[in-house]
């Protein structure tokens, strides 16, 4: 195994120092390190963070390998500074059995670019009718701990209660896509002024808030662990704030796009801006950013959702919802939060690793810890060109936007997956 | 002149007035023995209809033919999610055929906006989903002006299922631009959120038809589908008709000069009774006639007929 000596790098924003990586771990941290056998990486001007961890990634394999594969999505993740991603269960077949989650887990190992941690479905076929074999997935080689029907809400309150209760046996967590389905039938975008003008059926904020309010009460009642996916409204933030104050075991994520883009983007009718939950208003963005800073929202998760060209180059109503996120998330965080490196590390690495139970990840570089880390050039600015992304899909909402920050290198257990801003394999 | 007509909001007051004035000239052609002008000879107009709408299609077809354009009717059922050709591929086909204008009716809001990205010719929105129907608003404005002599200062009530109405959206935008005051009337479930902010700041909303009627110059009744009651927008067709339908006694609450409009097709007995629809106040048949003149004006001006 090659050793790497990263010189004059700022670890999570601290004064520059040297990092020596050897045998998969951080061997030494301190100024003036020497290691004649090591490959030197000049870290001048760069910031080292623990490798980013995404709680919410759609890798599309098995089933939609034309849109993304475990390998292409892993490469996109590594280029985005990630060392671990949690792969959502809405594949085809659905990841609702030990067999499918083990397949995804194995494909991740074979790609070897990030740790791919499968998420299991809560219900069989995401149909919301009966529990999938959650214990079998937990006991499988994939060691599933997060369960989610993401894309669909576990709308039946009894089923949700049972799920929250049942996974306590193996310290599992239910990640809810909070969307009351009866309130969003046919919905195309945020319900408000813009949906009225555009004549598109509205997705009201209350459809998200009502489910979160119910679920935090259920989690409180049974003592289970709830995670709320892609929180998008100011009202949801208030529900979460109150629940956390009462001590409910709930965590929440927000996506980069919900921190930056508003429903006004729909005015072009370009479905690259169609996503579920939908882009909301400037007031929601303000509330989400504040919640991210004060900890009511624990995590930035990408909801990376690749789609084939034909699923986006069509009428708005017929397009699939979702947008790419892995290769731009850090830049959006930097744009939205500024160079608050400790906060970024907390929201994009340490906390998501803790929620997912990924023990080797989310740990700041220190002697003896697994060398999962990423190097960022905060001074760089780059213009997003969809054709240059590593994802198989092109549905980024940031096309031709200029964003701060560039991932220079990413290390997974001491091996570079990205060097000089390029994927190693 | 603008290139496409996608929304009532695309028109400023001068452009809208130019279209209405041109339509008045076109109307004189209809009175002639030979109802035809050579203005668009050699130009190709495609009617691309993804929804059945015989009345709108034949209105556009008559308009284009009276201007001597070549008309191609392209009836495309289905959508990109069902089987069939995608809108983009259809657009490229029309482009390859050299369409100078594409008149598009589509069940998805915004489809004409997408189409405009993919063809070089002019796109005319002939109704998209629950979004807009700008030529309907133009023919409505034309009808009001013809009957009442002006648009500025008129008070117009638009009554019914505003939420799902492309006619209402286009009318609010165009009438506001032309200085009329619009009041939207219907049950709260059928009035979309933030309508004034979304479309035009001066727009009023009322849930009480009877209180609005004595103060309006125009009452425009929108088609209301009975099936909406199955989605709890209102309890029953009977209750809807009782609260928001226009019948004889209600019509007599209108000022003497006020007119009654309806974009058609009507649900007689639901939003309007036969007595009202067939009364002298009703402009429903004139609206159809005026539709052809207005669409002639739109095609003529969009295709640069006035520059030749």
From TrEMBL, chain A:
Name the UniProt record assigns to this protein: Dihydroorotase
Originating gene: pyrC
EC number, UniProt record: 3.5.2.3
Cellular-component GO terms for this entry: cytoplasm
UniProt cross-references to InterPro entries, sorted A to Z: DHOase (IPR004722), DHOase/Allantoinase_Hydrolase (IPR050138), DHOase_cat (IPR024403), Dihydroorotase_CS (IPR002195), Metal-dep_hydrolase_composite (IPR011059), Metal_Hydrolase (IPR032466)
Primary role: Catalyzes the reversible cyclization of carbamoyl aspartate to dihydroorotate.
Domain Dihydroorotase catalytic per the UniProt entry, residue ranges: 47-234
The reaction(s) this protein catalyses: (S)-dihydroorotate + H2O = N-carbamoyl-L-aspartate + H(+)
NCBIfam families named in the record: PRK09357.1-1, pyrC_multi
From TrEMBL, chain B:
Pfam families: OTCace (PF00185), OTCace_N (PF02729)
Residues the entry annotates as binding carbamoyl phosphate: 55-56, 105, 133, 136, 264-265
Gene3D superfamilies: Aspartate/ornithine carbamoyltransferase (3.40.50.1370)
Keyword Disulfide bond: no
Ligand binding (L-aspartate): 83, 166, 223
UniProt domain Aspartate/ornithine carbamoyltransferase Asp/Orn-binding: residue ranges: 153-302
Catalysis performed (reactions): carbamoyl phosphate + L-aspartate = N-carbamoyl-L-aspartate + phosphate + H(+)
Signal peptide location: none
GO process annotations (BP): 'de novo' pyrimidine nucleobase biosynthetic process; 'de novo' UMP biosynthetic process; amino acid metabolic process
Listed EC numbers: 2.1.3.2
Gene Ontology cellular component annotations, sorted alphabetically: cytosol
Residues annotated as domain Aspartate/ornithine carbamoyltransferase carbamoyl-P binding: 3-145
Pathways involved: Pyrimidine metabolism; UMP biosynthesis via de novo pathway; (S)-dihydroorotate from bicarbonate: step 2/3
MF annotations from Gene Ontology: amino acid binding; aspartate carbamoyltransferase activity
Domain of life: Bacteria
Entry keyword set: Pyrimidine biosynthesis, Transferase
Assembly: Heterododecamer (2C3:3R2) of six catalytic PyrB chains organized as two trimers (C3), and six regulatory PyrI chains organized as three dimers (R2).
Physiological role: Catalyzes the condensation of carbamoyl phosphate and aspartate to form carbamoyl aspartate and inorganic phosphate, the committed step in the de novo pyrimidine nucleotide biosynthesis pathway.
Family per record: Belongs to the aspartate/ornithine carbamoyltransferase superfamily. ATCase family.
PANTHER family: ASPARTATE CARBAMOYLTRANSFERASE, ORNITHINE CARBAMOYLTRANSFERASE, MITOCHONDRIAL
Protein name per its UniProtKB record: Aspartate carbamoyltransferase
Organism per entry: Micromonospora inaquosa
Record gene name: pyrB
């Amino acid at each position: 195994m090659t050793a790497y000596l990263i010189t004059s790098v700022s670890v999570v924003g601290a004064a520059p120092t040297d990092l020596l990586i050897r045998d998969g771990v951080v061997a030494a941290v301190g100024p003036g390190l020497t290691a004649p056998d090591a490959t030197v990486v000049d870290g001048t001007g760069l910031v080292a963070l623990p490798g980013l961890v995404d709680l919410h990634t759609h890798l599309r394999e098995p089933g939609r390998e034309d849109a993304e594969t475990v390998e292409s999505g892993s490469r996109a993740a590594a280029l985005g500074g990630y060392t671990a991603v949690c792969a959502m269960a809405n594949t085809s077949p659905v990841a609702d059995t030990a067999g499918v989650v083990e397949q995804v887990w194995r494909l991740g190992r074979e790609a070897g670019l990030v740790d791919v941690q499968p998420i299991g479905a809560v219900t069989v076929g995401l149909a919301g009718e009966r529990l999938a074999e959650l214990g079998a997935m937990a006991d499988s080689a994939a060691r599933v701990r997060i369960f989610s029907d993401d894309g669909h809400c576990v709308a039946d309150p009894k089923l949700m209660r049972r799920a929250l209760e049942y996974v306590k046996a193996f310290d599992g967590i239910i990640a809810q896509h909070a969307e009351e389905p009866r309130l969003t039938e046919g919905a195309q975008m945020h319900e408000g002024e813009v949906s009225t003008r555009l004549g598109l059926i509205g997705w009201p904020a209350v459809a998200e808030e009502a489910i979160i309010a119910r679920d935090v009460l259920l989690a409180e009642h049974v003592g289970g662990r709830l995670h709320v996916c892609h929180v998008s409204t100011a009202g949801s933030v208030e529900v979460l704030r109150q629940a956390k104050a009462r001590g409910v075991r709930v965590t929440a994520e927000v996506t980069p796009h919900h921190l930056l883009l508003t429903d006004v983007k729909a005015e072009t009718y370009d479905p690259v801006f169609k996503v579920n939950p939908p882009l909301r208003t400037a007031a929601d963005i303000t509330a989400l950013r504040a919640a991210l800073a004060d900890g009511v929202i624990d995590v930035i998760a990408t909801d990376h959702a690749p789609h084939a060209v034909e699923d986006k180059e069509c009428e708005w109503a017929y397009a699939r919802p979702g947008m790419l996120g892995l290769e731009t998330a850090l830049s959006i965080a930097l744009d939205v939060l500024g160079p608050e490196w400790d906060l970024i590390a907390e929201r994009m690495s340490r906390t998501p690793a803790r929620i997912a139970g990924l023990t080797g990840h989310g740990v700041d570089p220190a002697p003896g810890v697994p060398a999962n880390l990423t190097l960022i050039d905060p001074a760089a600015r780059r213009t997003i060109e969809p054709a240059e992304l590593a994802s198989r899909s092109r549905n980024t909402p940031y096309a031709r936007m200029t964003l701060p920050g560039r991932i220079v290198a990413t290390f997974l257990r001491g091996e570079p997956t990205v060097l000089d801003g390029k994927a190693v394999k | 002149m603008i290139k496409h007509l996608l929304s009532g909001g695309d028109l400023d007051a001068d452009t809208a007035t130019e279209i209405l004035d041109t339509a008045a000239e076109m109307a004189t052609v209809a009175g002639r023995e030979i109802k035809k002008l050579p203005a668009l000879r050699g130009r190709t107009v495609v009617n691309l209809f993804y929804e059945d709408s015989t009345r709108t299609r034949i209105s556009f077809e008559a308009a284009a033919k009276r201007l001597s354009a070549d008309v191609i009717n392209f009836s495309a059922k289905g959508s990109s999610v069902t089987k069939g050709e995608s809108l983009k591929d259809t657009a490229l086909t029309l482009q390859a055929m050299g369409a100078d204008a594409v008149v598009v009716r589509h069940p998805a809001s915004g489809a004409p906006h997408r189409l405009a990205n993919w063809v070089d010719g002019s796109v005319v929105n002939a109704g998209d989903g629950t979004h807009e129907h700008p030529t309907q608003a133009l023919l409505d404005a034309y009808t009001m002006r013809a009957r009442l002599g002006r648009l500025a200062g008129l008070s117009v009530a638009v009554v019914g299922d505003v939420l799902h109405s492309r006619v209402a959206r286009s009318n609010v935008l165009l009438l506001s631009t032309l200085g009329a005051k619009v009041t939207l009337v219907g049950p709260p479930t059928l009035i979309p959120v933030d309508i004034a902010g979304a479309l035009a700041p001066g727009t009023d909303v009322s849930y009480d038809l009877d209180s609005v009627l004595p103060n309006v110059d125009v009452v425009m009744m929108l088609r209301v589908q009975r099936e909406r009651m199955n989605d709890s927008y209102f309890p029953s067709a009977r209750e809807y008709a009782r609260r928001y339908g226009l019948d004889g006694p209600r019509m007599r609450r209108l000022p003497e000069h006020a007119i009654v409009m309806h974009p058609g097709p009507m649900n007689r007995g639901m939003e309007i009774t036969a007595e009202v629809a067939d009364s002298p106040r009703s402009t429903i048949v004139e609206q159809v006639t005026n539709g052809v003149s207005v669409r002639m004006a739109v095609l003529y001006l969009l295709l640069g007929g006035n520059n030749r």
